[in-house]
Amino acid sequence: ISASTFSAYVFLQWWAWRRSDGGGEFVQRLAASKNEADAEKAAWLFNIFHYVIRTWPWILVALAAMVIYPDLADRELGYPKLMLEFLPRGMLGIVVTSLIAAFMSTVSTSINWGASYLTNDLYLRFVHPQASESELVLVGRIASVLVTVLGAIAAFFATDVATVFRLVIAIGTGPGLVLMLRWFWWRINAAAELTAMVAGFVVGFGTSVVPVIQIPDFGWRLLVTAGITGVLWIVVMLLTPPESDTTLDEFYRRVRPAGPGWKRQQLRTGLAPIQDLEHDLKRVLASILLMFGAMLAIGGFLLLKPLTGWVSLVIAVLGWMWLRQIKDKREQGIGSRE
Fold this sequence. Notes:
The chain is built from 15 helices and no strands. It is mainly alpha-helical.
């Protein structure tokens, strides 16, 4: 990949993509947990399996396919060819079943999340705020069919996975920053969020498939999409009124966020925040050390790079120790206040 694409992945995507605040699909699943502790365990389990473990079978299989099939015209056929030629029948059935299960899980989540978003965040809020429950159920069913049909059409016209992957990344780039800031600043309103999502989709789609404005380099495409989207949602936010004090106060009472962005609501409601931004930031940094250290440690040992493996393992252990220290201090602080 080009230097601009690599830079966009490392320095841009973590704050500009639509899932930068956690992602509606994942939040939907975590919200189904019994309590916050179970939700945190589920999040850790997902991240460990998704990043630490699942990454390396993909990479190793890809490297093996490049060695075994050096002249393969379509690189995406390497994975299924290896499955067919090297897996025994029983194992092949298990792998195929797991791929179908993963596909169905992703599709069902995307359909449910998309229908929920179209029904609650668009139709109920902007089209018919007085809609009854039966009407919302009907709209949700129609939205589910619509999302499914659009996905099927997109899959029919897709020629390769890489192009689809880059298109999905491009149309999802832009709203990430505003989706994160809404948790830290009262001034972010619905108009700014909607503008960021629509602008990101339009600019990302246009620079990907419209010949006149198409940007061949993927890194510059993401940078342009994020930049234009940022300018548009900031202008819209400044030109439109903020959410009502009633809405903001109710949100603050439920979430109790910390930071200077919610000082007005703290003073107006008389409620102290229950969030500790410094504590949360330390947890994020420690978790990053743990997750990436563990991921790179496994990769280092599997790829016969012991120095990389041991250094990464030490970083992972330090991250885990720091995370435990932060948790112990937090529990001691809560115990002393009680």
